[in-house]
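TA notes, week 10

Several of you asked for a full example with nothing omitted. So below is the full record: structure tokens for the whole chain, then the designed sequence directly under it. When grading your own attempts, check the secondary structure regions first.
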């Protein structure tokens, strides 16, 4: 497997990009310290539209760390055959236990009551492995929604799935574990995910950041792209430039832009540079 960066562009909005979906020729992007969904034109990354999560609120970016909702999870999902986008906070603090559902047809935002679900996950040590709850990625198939718990330099990462039919009030779920690679002494942790229909597989990103908790940032050593099939990590490779140098950034989310052939595709990903301008990158992935 190879994951090679083909293009790097500065992303002005949203700040601290943390989630992306490529849908019908547009980029839908969230930031972990912004209070809105941003719709961008691919040509120049200009903003077509912003949709606040709470109707009537002014769009804000760079919300202080102690106050932000830490939106890290974003997934395209069909709900009763209608296309939506699920957006969730990381759950690492009470103010981060929030979720929204954006209807792509009516262009309306719905608040979901995930309080009980977040609290259940917090107490489930088979999911957190005794660490803080830190849900960093989401994706969906036609039947299931997957959520990924980031293990900050932990020996294992975990992910779960629940039925799409339970999206309004999830309760029952199944947990899986994943052993991800190291860079130096740092262990990779899940950071993004998407579903590849043509491969019937989950594509994920994982980054290595030298921090021991879900709140503080740390030095970034690099990021990986991997494939999950039948709920197991089958492949995982570091993201590089064409000359073989590692791409050193915290890749936060990934979405398929174009399938080239049965063994390769082009994906778009976003990075969070922790206070600096984020980047949007195109990655050619070959199995």
């Amino acid at each position: 497997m190879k994951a090679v960066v083909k293009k790097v562009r500065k992303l002005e909005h949203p700040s601290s990009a943390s989630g992306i979906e490529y849908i019908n020729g547009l980029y839908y992007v969230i930031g972990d310290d912004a209070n809105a969904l941003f719709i961008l034109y691919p040509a120049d990354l200009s903003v077509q539209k912003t949709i606040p999560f709470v109707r009537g609120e002014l769009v804000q970016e760079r919300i202080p760390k102690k106050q932000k909702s830490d939106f890290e999870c974003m997934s395209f999902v069909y709900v009763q055959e209608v296309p939506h986008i699920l957006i969730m906070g990381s759950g690492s603090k009470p103010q981060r236990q929030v979720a929204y559902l954006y209807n792509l047809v009516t262009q309306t935002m719905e608040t979901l009551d995930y309080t009980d679900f977040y609290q259940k996950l917090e107490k489930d040590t088979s999911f957190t492995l005794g660490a803080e709850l830190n849900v960093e990625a989401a994706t969906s198939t036609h039947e299931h929604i997957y959520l990924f718990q980031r293990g900050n330099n932990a020996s294992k990462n975990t992910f779960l799935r629940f039925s799409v039919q339970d999206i309004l009030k999830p309760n029952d779920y199944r947990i899986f574990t994943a052993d991800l690679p190291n860079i130096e002494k740092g262990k990779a942790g899940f950071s993004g995910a998407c579903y590849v229909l043509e491969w019937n597989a989950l594509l994920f990103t994982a980054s290595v950041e030298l921090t021991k908790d879900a709140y503080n940032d740390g030095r970034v050593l690099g990021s990986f792209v991997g494939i999950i099939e039948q709920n197991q990590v089958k492949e995982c490779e570091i993201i590089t430039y064409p000359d073989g140098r590692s791409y050193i950034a915290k890749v936060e989310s990934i979405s398929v832009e174009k399938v080239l052939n049965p063994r390769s595709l082009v994906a778009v990903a976003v990075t969070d540079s922790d206070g600096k301008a984020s980047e949007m990158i195109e990655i050619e992935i070959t199995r």
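The longest strand covers residues 219-229. Use that as a sanity check on your answer.
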